[in-house]
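Suppose a colleague, Dr. K., hands you the sequence of a protein chain of 763 amino acids and asks what its three-dimensional shape might be. Before reaching for any lab equipment, you can write down a predicted structure in token form. Begin with the sequence itself:
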Amino acid sequence: MNRRLLLGISAVVVAIVAAVAVVLVTRDDGDNPSATLSDALSDEQRALIERAEPSPDCPDEPVAAPDDESLVALDVLRVDENDCLVAATEYVAPDEVDDRRAELLEEPGVVAAGVVGEVGLDEEDDRRDDQWSLDRLGAEEDSPDLPWPDGHGAVLAVLDTGVDETHPDLGDAVLERRHYPGEGEHDPDGHGTHVAGIAAARRDNGGIIGVAPRVSVLDVPVRLKDVNDAGPSWPTGLAWAVNHGADAVNMSFGGPIPAAPDVEELQDLEVEAAAVYFAVSNDVVVVSSGGNCGPSPLTDCADVNQRQTPSSLPGVIAVGAVQDDLDLAGYSTRNEDIDLVAPGGGDLFTGVLSTYPGGGYESLQGTSQAAPHVAAAAALIRAAAPEASGDEIGQALLDTADLDRLDEGDREGRGVGRGFLDIAGALEQVLAGAPPATSPPADRTRTAFVRDDELFAFDGAEVGPVRTIDPGTAVRWLDWTADGSLLVGADDGELFAWDGSALVEAPCGWCSESRPAFLEDVEVEGATGDFVVGMDYAGTMTWYDAATLDEVASTTPTFPADAVGTKTLLGAVGGQLLVHESGGAQASERVWLLDPASGAAELSADVMGSPQAPIAVAADGAQVAVVTGYGACGAEVTVLDAAGLTELAVAPVPEDLILDEVFFNGEALYATMEVAASDCSALQPDGLWRLDRGRWQEIDESPIGARPLEGIDDDTAESWLVAGIDGQGGFNPPLTGDPSANELGPITDGPWATPTTTEVPWP
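The predicted structure, expressed as tokens, is then:
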């Protein structure tokens, strides 16, 4: 699995949405929970994991928990000389954890070592006498026949309290068990047997029927709160499951993520992130319960809607729970980590009936019960389409989830992700070979905005958080790949790249001096690819791989002999770079087109003064608008033909106004402006303007920011994303589906967007 759906919901206050990702990027030891999860592994750690080859012959020797309860379990993941990823546990004194961890990380092959936090079961208790959950998923009521394949040939790993394999309804289901010293009863709690039955209970034996009644189960007992105290941690169990051929994994448990994790907690998360990365990079679909920390008064979480692992980790499909009437259950966590929902039972009366130790049956409820419906669906799809990748299966589960089946009020809030599980629809998409929906159509607008200190992105269908912005730091520049699969940007001190789920950041010493530019499929110093490039005041250009932000080259452009002024990079247009020259001997100042391959500048055009605002480039790359002047007051906008820098229009900014941003809407040029104070600083917003026949005409005085959108996946094909005077974000005309006004919130900076191919009328 290589990435989630672009701009899928799943991050700081999120999800998911989200979609499936395996990219875990360079570490950021700040206090941002999103960075904690998505930045947990370094490039070296990922490369080491990618070297590992899953095999049941890989060593696995769980260590018995010692009688000394003061000792701490330190989990270690390493890749040995045979390219096996080996999971092991050591028990050390609390004051020796840091030293021992440091020693381990010095050993060749060690990926991560840390103390895995305590996790508990995501369940609620009650009873019910039938399997309404299968009815809601599309099975004929009371019929043992299912409208999808039975999962024969696929392997589902159940990481839980264990499975009572003697249950009549689980007769031949358990393929293999990971035993551990001192394990005692195979399911001392009943939770694991219940989860296994939802997924894999056999048909035609007088009991219930599972979602995938012929799938094979790997029984992987793990250490859970108050259960299996001597059991192994879940990351070591996950590594074992991958080595033993799991196609999908269910993890119906979770532990809270600290709001401000310290260094040790960040290090411990590496073990969890590494285990998930090992799974998803080997085509295993990883599913987890999303948590029972909803607003119901019956929940006992420390914080309502708190985030937890493993459901928040990149690569994990997080599942929320609905009742039999398909309303979101009160206990189900409502945050943006949730990717989709499935039957989990109601708050008080309606549970999900499944197997229980001793040959019995119980009705339980919780996101624990919702998750195995999704995990079983992933397994049966793999059985029906053995060549399908984990990414294709996970993406199909998300693409086909149905919001319309849920209560309208639930659709407008968090906690339902992409909607209600549609097994038949997901199977149909995989069998049809539908490509993962990671690249929106070329004519779909991508946009981004800041809410408080968080950058969010919108792809025409969903809002997703990108990164936290340090207070007092502004977003200076944003751009997107043509297919929308990558967002790149910069603030005053850092570059960043976001692929819809994983965030990469890199320090940028020149970012406070000039804006970067983004070029796709260009040649630089013999290398061809997608690059972010910046120029310092000395004229040196630094090139970065757009996806990783690794520095790949440093070049010095060549200008004619009379171009002696200071150079400032303005951006990219038509596959070339646009550079401003000022302070030279010539009377007027100029902009130059610079060829990235040769580094030579040949074409130029005269402009008035230095840059006053970011440039705007039309969607087809044929026009570029440059804002220059000898100060913010009295600036003018020059519209140039991008191919030859021929002047198309020159428009002075109206008196007593300051131009904030310019952008193309089709071939028309729009701008947001502000009233100028006596010292030429911005006094107050002055709305939206349009350039008509060389003169600026005010369209509406109310927006402080606005961008036109096209290609929206909604009944409304075109709209404007608007930040009003009060800052509240909204769509005009309104969208009939997501995202809701709550998801937009107050827009404190932006929005920014890719230009539309045709003009979207102002409503």
